[in-house]
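Record now logged underneath.
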Amino acid sequence: MNCRWVSKENRNVKCTRKADSSGYCLFHKENKSSRQIALFEAYIKKGEINDFTGFCFNENFNIEKIVNYKYDKLKFCEAKFKKEANFNDFIFVKSVDFTNVEFKSSVNFNNCIFLNNCIFNKTIFNEKYINEKVFEKANFNGQKLIVEKCAYFPRLDGVVFSPYTKFILKDINYSKKNCLCGKNNYKIARIQAKQTEDNENMSYYYYNERNYTSNFLKSSRYKGYSDYLTNEFFDFLSKYIIGYGEKPFRLLCISVFIISLFALIYMFTGLNTMDYGLVKINLSKNMYTFNEIIIYYLEAWYFSMITFSTVGYGEIIALGIFGKIFVCLEVFLGITIHATWTSVLFSRLIQ
């Protein structure tokens, strides 16, 4: 009977080794006896295995004691490390892949040297060690370090990059209590992206760095609570209106929304136009054709547009005290958003 192990990522990938009474082979079996553990390590060394896909490591793992032979590429895809995984001081001569690996306990890559690509994709780390310096003095000299969709990915403080190593950090989410870890990791990714001129991802890293920084803010860090509220207010506007300067399309959408909203308001407060005379929806009058409403709204939208842009040709004027109040408010919003547009575009141009 063959081993029952099947890949979760690709159901066509199966183990063809012989299984014991548990239904699994020695490599994929989770509960191994001490004798089986010794055989497990011996078979790895004797066979000079470099594909550990789905392997279950029951005891403490020390790569230097097990992988002491030449290999083409190390694949730990879907492997499980039930206890401590120690990769310290190891030189990864070839590429290494940790896709879908589960580290149930601590893991360390301190003083490692990566001479080729390294991949952490959908890797699950133990949240207990998320703030440990797992990669302290780890040296990445390969072409790429890819970290995507990992859970509880630990801090990268102390990591050393070659000037030519492209660091990709995508879809790594941190809870509020771990936001400092998120801030540090995305800051490191942004700095390395600048080093390698990875402009495509730099804005993404900057946005996430600012986002986790804002979650880290506490009132105790300010002179008074009013300063804290002021900073929180402007941080809220910066985040949701322009995405910290990295999502200018939001500002365009908000501008169109403001113009359209004020156009609707002006239809009820009233406008005096050169082409159509009085433009105003009277709620006491129920008879308005569809064409009349469209014409009224287009006239109001045109007036709202030139008011928002502070052009003001003068062929349309707002009626009543409320109409004039709304005009002043829209002019203020227009000036503010124009200044924001200028700041965002300038910052994008000089990046």
Notes: The helical segments are 34-47, 63-66, 179-195, 199-216, 225-242, 248-269, 290-308, 320-349. The CA atoms of residues 61 and 85 lie 5 Å apart. The first strand starts at residue 56 and ends at 57.
